[in-house]
Amino acid sequence: AAGGAPRLRSTAASLDGINRAVVDRIIRVDHAGEYGANRIYAGQMAVLGRSAAGPVIQQMWNQEKDHLKKFNELMIAYRVRPTVLLPFWNVAGFVLGAGSALLGKKGAMACTVAVEESISDHYNNQIRTLMEEDPEKYKELLQIIKQFRDDEREHHDIGLEHDAEGAPAYSVLKTVIQLGCKAAIFLSERI
């Protein structure tokens, strides 16, 4: 699911008549999520970058870098401020990535499965919200979110293919990480 992110055609036209509260919340939280994902993969690469899992993690990280770049552009285009929690997500993301990688490849992949499942579910909720608002008005934003959701699903599946479920205490680890993701989403939408 590579293939670059769609570009906004007309920023000025895109700002007319949009629901600012909804768009601000979506772009702010998605930017924070992609920022956090980048930090998670950075932490995983710090521990496992030279292992056999390194190329797989790097491939997923490269897509996350593209996602973050696109949300950086959208923040400027839609004039959305970032969450004030970015410094916290910087540290927390790296610690989560490195900590899960210290459990080995399976631990890193369990983290990937948990995070990417949470994020793709979150993106699905945003797609529903924008479709209820006005699918034509939010066509470009919907296209971006759908593509990134598909990339996150692919990362989830890669994690499963690389033995995520074999990680120590997989179900506990997954549940804890997903609770953290829900809290991060809730806070980043609002602060």
Automatic annotation (TrEMBL):
Pfam families: COQ7. The keyword Plastid does not apply. GO terms for molecular function: 3-demethoxyubiquinol 3-hydroxylase activity; metal ion binding. Pathway: Cofactor biosynthesis; ubiquinone biosynthesis. The keyword Magnesium does not apply. It comes from the Eukaryota. GO terms for biological process: determination of adult lifespan; regulation of gene expression; regulation of reactive oxygen species metabolic process; ubiquinone biosynthetic process. GO terms for cellular component: mitochondrial inner membrane; nucleus. Keywords: Iron, Membrane, Metal-binding, Monooxygenase, Oxidoreductase, Ubiquinone biosynthesis. This is COQ7 protein. It comes from Asarcornis scutulata.
